[in-house]
Amino acid sequence: MGVVPLKDILDPAFDARYGVPAINIFNDLTMEAVLAGAVDARSPVILQTSVKTVRSIGSRVLFDMWQSLTRGIEVPVTLHLDHCPDRDVVTECLKAGWNSVLFDASELPVEENQRQTIEVVAEARSYGAQVEGEIESITGVEDDHGSDDVSEQQSLETALAFIDATGIDVFAPSIGNAHGSYKAAPVLDVDRVTQIVEARSIPIALHGGSGLSAEQFADLIARGCAKVNISTALKETYMQSSLAFLKQAEQNNKWDPPSLFKHTRGEIIAMVTELTEQFGSAGKAGN
């Protein structure tokens, strides 16, 4: 219980075929509310920070917040750096105490991506941390990172060779998923998840989770997507719930920031508990 390595959360989820929410926070309120939701649901949770959030708040301040809010927490939690192409930021976060990183060199040729990922894995191991890797860009822009262009999908053989050579702990394949809100129902290459898992038995990270159907989530988790990334859904919950409250405050001419924060926090906690129920991680933290 408490802060644990990423593997301690994902390995049981992968073995039992449930999904763990990996939620991108962006301030102290969202960090606290996501953790509170996990506690309420008795669920493990992966708390993620984007490079944009690290740069805007600062790694030291973020990690101090993390330490304060997880002190004595009774569910398994871990801190993950999401989609980071910058080796300096990877090093900064590993030194600060992050438990895992996604080194995203997907815009580089696979050979160079592999070479650098091997180095990042070695660096992470020196801090007792884990690494998520990917060889194809996930379509869509998120927190100023990525592109709306659809990247070329690599062969299964290339993906397996990358996993073998790098020693990564989690793999994030492109399967037709996308960051942000889907403009149309996505057509997913779910068989690719099955092929990778059957060949290498490695936990899969599902990116672009916000907006997938319950059936798609269930199918992908059953195939081995143990880490389910959620970012857009939290941003929308945070901003839309705040907007609704502020409209009511304007109508009533009553301006009380703590009431706004309490309202938004409650909406986020409800979102997190619903995700844990949907992904099957609720109650998995034990008693």
From TrEMBL:
Domain of life, per lineage:
Bacteria
What cofactor does this chain's UniProt record say it requires? Zn(2+)
Q: What is this protein called?
A: Fructose-bisphosphate aldolase, class II
Record: residues binding Zn(2+) 2: 104, 134
SUPFAM superfamilies per UniProt: Aldolase
Q: Which of this chain's residues are annotated to bind Zn(2+) 1?
A: 83, 179, 207
Matching Pfam families: F_bP_aldolase
Organism equals Arthrobacter subterraneus
- Protein keywords: Metal-binding, Zinc
GO BP of this protein = carbohydrate metabolic process
